[in-house]
Design a protein that fits this description.
The chain is of the alpha+beta class. About 55% of the residues lie in helices and about 15% in strands.
Length: about 450
């Protein structure tokens, strides 16, 4: 009789381990994997996928089975130890301790650890028995389903339950940390998540960097500009750059130039896309694709030309910098020493604050590039050798081109708090030395 109890308890603990492993395995498999398994030719995989698609009922089935075997094991253990030990109190205590340790180590920790590492094989292996129990416990499942709906209505969750971009990025970081995706894939997914939040202002080429030609410019000079810049499209203005009237395409220009055309007006496309800086780049991308255009003019609130943005600029926000044979590759940040840097004028203010860990909000400033930022701090047009202090940084203007900064020198000084802390420690040390001398 005692052997019966031991074998029965052993069998129930094994079933407990089976249910624990199945629960962890199915919880660890993503919806995407379940869909892939559903298309398999293996019956077990199809069954596992079907169970995964009804996850709530699946978990309820597993929990019902797990509770039944755990309670059964505890009951048999109590009966067994009562037969072995005459004192009922001692028998109950020993039974509780023994079955708790056995179920904890054999029925919970070990199978769940194994299932976490190999979720798919265990889910597929357990599918036939779980599917059988799913139908066996169906009446109880149905009753518990009604109970869940009642609880959901009573304790209805308030607030927005939508998944935010921050949560999605956290998921991506976790996937990268676990090795499911590599760093490049992670960066691309994050860029795609953040893509819809970016505006034209975040990606435009500023007004001072625009290469454009007047409609009266001789074609020979325009030919030289195309050759020097390597650009495929150049805006055409009338009078000044605030009045852009067309876009000159390099291919059309060369064809008409070879045919003897001498007027820019007859060589340019008169279709111009005008957008405000607040336009989402995702919306602009759709607009450019629909109109088969490659460039848009960014107009300020006063109607002037603020900058331009191209399809390449938009794609670079998604996939990173795109270089072609005409691009001059420049490092925006050159490290001279541990505390000294040379920074390009077109380096973004956001990246600058991140690089030097400046505890201020870049949005508090109107400028988006270092060139404009330094001019904003100086409150005038910057000149070469101008210097200023900002936070714990010493900044010197190295080079100015066309009234804008091409590069600056930055030296990182120790923060005032650190200096005060060091000074305080020094004073304390001197004071303690003085006290020791006075005691002597």
């Amino acid at each position: 009789m005692d052997l019966f109890y031991i074998l029965a308890i052993f069998a129930l603990v094994i079933l407990s381990a089976f249910f624990s492993a199945a629960e962890t395995a199915y919880s660890s498999i993503t919806r995407v994997r379940f869909k892939a398994m559903a298309e398999s030719k293996s019956k077990r995989q199809v069954w596992a996928a079907a169970l995964g698609e009804n996850f709530e009922k699946l978990i309820t089935t597993i929990l019902i089975g797990n509770n039944i075997v755990n309670i059964g094991a505890a009951t048999l253990a109590t009966l067994f130890f009562t037969r072995v030990i005459e004192d009922a109190t001692i028998a109950g205590t020993v039974s509780t301790i023994a079955i708790t340790l056995i179920v904890l180590f054999v029925g919970e920790v070990a199978p769940k650890t194994l299932a976490k590492r190999n979720p798919e094989p265990i889910a597929i292996f357990s599918a036939p028995l779980i599917l059988f129990l799913y139908y066996l416990f169906y009446p109880m499942n149905w009753i518990l389903g009604l109970w869940q709906k009642l609880l959901t209505k009573i304790f209805k969750k308030k607030g927005d339950t939508a998944i935010t971009d921050e949560v999605l990025i956290t998921y991506v970081d976790e996937a990268e940390d676990s090795g499911e995706i590599d760093a490049e894939e992670s960066e691309l997914i994050k860029s795609a998540i953040e893509f819809d939040d970016l505006t034209v202002e975040d990606a435009l080429t500023p007004r001072v960097d625009i290469v454009a030609v007047d409609v009266t410019t001789p074609v020979d000079k325009v030919l030289d500009i195309f050759r020097e810049t390597g650009y495929s499209r150049i805006p055409v203005y009338k009078g000044n750059i605030d009045n852009i009237i067309g876009i000159l395409n390099e291919k059309d220009f060369y064809k008409l130039y070879m045919d003897g055309q001498k007027k820019i007006r007859n060589m340019m496309s008169k279709e111009v896309v005008l957008v405000p800086p607040s336009t989402k780049i995702s919306d602009l991308l759709k607009r450019l694709q629909k109109g088969k255009m490659h460039i848009a003019i960014v107009i300020s609130e006063f109607g002037g030309t603020m900058g331009i943005i191209t399809l390449e600029d938009i794609l670079e926000e998604l996939v990173g910098e795109i270089w072609d044979e005409h691009d001059e590759i420049e490092e925006p940040v050159k490290k001279i020493s541990d505390t000294e840097y040379e920074i390009a004028g077109q380096y973004s203010v956001d990246d600058f604050f991140d690089l030097f860990e400046i505890d201020r909000d870049p949005d508090d400033y109107d400028s988006v590039t270092i060139s404009g930022f330094v001019g904003e701090i100086l409150d005038r047009t910057p000149q070469e050798n101008d210097t200023l202090s900002f936070d714990n940084l010493f900044i010197k203007v190295l080079k100015v081109e066309y009234n804008r900064i091409a590069s600056i020198y930055v030296k990182v000084n120790k923060k005032q708090e650190d200096e005060e802390l060091n000074e305080g420690l020094l004073l304390r040390g001197l004071k303690s030395s003085s006290d020791e001398e006075s005691e002597e």
